[in-house]
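Ticket closed. Logging final result for Integrase catalytic domain-containing protein.
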Amino acid sequence: MTNVKTLIPISLQDLSLWPKPDLNSLPEHIRSLYLRRKLAIEGYARDESYKAIEEKTELNQKEVRRLIRRCTAFSESIGQIWGFFALIPNARISSYERRSPIDGIYRGRGAYAGAFEKLLEKYPDVREKIDSEFLKKGGGKQIFEARVTLRNLHDQFKSTLKEKGLTEDDYPFNTNDVAYRSLCSYCRSLSHRGGKVAMRARAGMDAANRDPVGNGKERLIRCLRPYSSVQLDYLKVDAASIIMIKNSHDEWLEVLVARWYIGLLVEEDSGAIIGAHAAFEMNPSGDTALEVVDSCLRSKPFDSDDCRSEYVDEGKALVVQMMPELEYQTFSSLKVDRGWANSATDVVNNIMDTFGCSICFGPTYSWWKRDLIERINGQLTRRGLQRFPSTYGSSPHDTKKDKPGETAKKLKIKITDLVAVVYGAIREMNEARKDNLEHSSPITVLRSALKNPKRGFFHQPIPRKMQEGLQLLAAVDERIVAGNIEKNVKPYFSSGGWRYTNITLANSWHLVGKKIIIYTNRRLCRNVLAYVKDTGEPLGPMQPIGWPRDSVMTLAERKMMARAGVRERGKDIPHDSLNRHVAEKINRIQREKKGAAEALKIAKHLTDKKRAKKEEAFSNDPVIHEESIGSQEEPKAEYCEVQEPSGAGNGVFDTSQMRPIRRKR
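Final structure:
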């Protein structure tokens, strides 16, 4: 009589797919029992009778069926059935469930196995309260502690049970620690299975964001050949420095900068730095992103007077400069974060139109999404920038920080010094041997890929027609044409403080007040193309009005020059001759008024003093006193005649010119 395999589902009847342990890791006595149990399961799967199975393995029908149920049970920890792991003696495939009742007699810790879980099953609201407090669950309607401690949580747990009427004879109050160890174990299990929610509640948002790191999952799209994927990011330079800007009149404008950025473009397969650009801005902009991408196209070395060539051989730091055969080489995918600089319309449109690549936007502040370029940023910082005496350090508590602003001014650390160090470090990193490249350098890997067709490298330069009229660095903007026909102010438009026009626009009075689209060359901002927005009519190349027509400034330099000019004007002290003349005249008048007032005050004081002496003499003379009483006439007051002091206008008085005058009665 054959056995019908009703206990093993059809999808699980292939036993070779079941999870199984390593036999070499099992002790001899456990291994022998495991093999007998496995032989019984395999016999059941081959439709052998229970009697035949028992003769071979000494396991009866009841035991065989129990083992099969254990093997086909689903495991949440491994995400599949337990398989042959369930045949290991004393292997627990489910959590312990207490069945015996809990009395009020203390019997030691071992007597309360499963009691805590049974308590939570009896009071599900207590479980919910523990979960919500520990994991901060409850939406925005509830306010939680920043990070509740297990002691505080245990106090809340005891208070909740007391409110439910539990006494000292009930569990957990009849135990020594009132289930504190059980609560700690339960909270640990919440942390283990809570995933990102538990990490955010117990360790903070940074720890929660690292949840995708090291999860064992392979990337869906892998980089299989050079230049198939590149990564773009920005490195914050935290060393205080001074920007020296030279205008067309050979005057240097000095600006102290605390932090600035350098953009990096890294090839993902070799880890080579193929593009870089220093941006002297508070935050990276779309101009920075396009400058970084554009720097990987041209193979021309840096000029000898360029600060970027100071610490690099032959003015070559980037890959395309050391390997001219990669000039105008394109790539298939660009990985960036969702920062404003990368998601700008100009950046997305210009890059996709020029390279024909896809742009993959990842989350911001997520280094694990672009771990390669983040690692290179850190290496570049440690190699040069944080070694400067004006460094701001990696954080406010970094001990390397020592008055960076004052140090930069004292040592005159210019921005060109930092740029030279950065590009020197870039050249060094491109030629440095790396462990993940089998101790080869990124440049060596790329040169090998060019020579070896098996590496799968495709030489895909930008079409020659696009190379001649490359619009990658064109800044697209919208402007309104200004002008006044009544005052004969010819049509023009303004951009960045400069006025532009040409013969066509100057004679197009009908365009005044209309919108036009302009394309400004970021490398030479005096070069501008304009089109009428409504009709698309080309207006041709525009020319700046006045002195900017001969300027060689870039778009970023023009913005920086405007900011520096405002700062320099704020430092100047104006010398207005008219204001100075008016101020001196007001001061002279105020001094004269003050002198006259002081003279009157002194005269009044002398008069009062003289009157007091006369009154005292009159009261002490008996003859005069009796005559005055008999006549009942009041004595006449004496007055001082005060002449205009000679020094009144200067606030100095000569009291010798004052004389008393006795008036007749």
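The CA atoms of residues 531 and 537 lie 5 Å apart. No further action required.
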